[in-house]
Amino acid sequence: MSELENIREWEGKEVVDADGQPLGQLEDVYFDASTDEPLFVTVHTGLLGRHLTFVPLAGATLGQDYLKVARLKAEIHHAPNIEKGGELSLEDEARVFKHYGVAYQPPETEGGRLLVRH
Length: 118
Prior knowledge:
Layout: E1 14-16, E2 22-32, E3 38-45, E4 51-56, E5 61-62, E6 66-68, H1 73-77, E7 81-83, H2 90-99, E8 115-117
Parallel strand pairs: 1-6
Antiparallel strand pairs: 1-2, 2-3, 2-8, 3-4, 4-7, 5-6
């Protein structure tokens, strides 16, 4: 995932699915709290882009002016989301990982969060 080192600079860029179908604009990047590795992005979705849908970065690649994720639009459409300006709850964090079939083990820290937004 070294190609995604500067993913923070891509906020506002277009995100497309594995088939090149547009998903929306990249809003935030969520990192692993212990390794600082980028794990998920949120994408403006829904009517008027009021929702932020979580999309995993595993297998993602950067194009000329877009981020291409390794998932299909149908799967992303049913993923957990939050309201723009909202916070990801601990329960929703677990749901995001489960939706995409990604192993989830929250860290044993005071906050108990695996994902942090920078």
